[in-house]
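Fold this complex.
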Amino acid sequence: MKLLYFAWVRERVGTSEESRDLPGSVQTAGELKTWLASIDEGYAYAFEDQAIIRVALDKKLVEDDASLADASEAAFFPPMTGG
Amino acid sequence: MRIAVQLEPFDVGAEIEALHARNPAIGAVVSFTGYCRDEGGALATLELEHFPGMAEQALAEIAEAANDRWPLQGVTVIHRHGKLAPGDPIVLVVTASAHRRAAFEAADFLMDYLKTRAPFWKKEHPRDGTSEGRWVDAKAADDQDAGRWS
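Structure:
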């Protein structure tokens, strides 16, 4: 799956984009956050407060219980601060 | 509906004129421009990161939502990204309607929604160079403002 990171999530994981094969047990956006947090220290730091990290599947904001089944891309970022 | 995500500055007067376009059905045009503050002289530059593709899509959805909710004759939303200096314009919302109330409310709604739903992030770079920059924290007040419309 294609994974994208923005703002301080990007800085903490150390990359803006990557492709990863997900284990079968990872079915939802929230489970993907938990799995990413286990990769290494940088990911753990990026996802230390999972509840505040927003997820977009194929460029649509979703809740943590959203299924990954039909998604080809997942993006992770902090709460937005535009405007 | 005009939606733009761009590096370049925008011309507020030209955007208002373009939206109005001498349409005699329009009785009210409201515009809001957000500018980069200098934070009491402490800020050197403001860096705006965005999610290309999703940013345009999110702004279009927010504009559609405003259009569904108020009887609008037109909406323009322009958001810049990249490095900005104090005094630079960041965001522009223009709404046109037959009457002022709809135009005022729709502009207010657009700004509230855009702040919490459009994928842009601000990083402040201080003038004194003490740090490489600090990501701006999202404000709970912004979520409360967006909640006013639900």
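Residues 104 and 150 of chain B are 17 Å apart (CA to CA).
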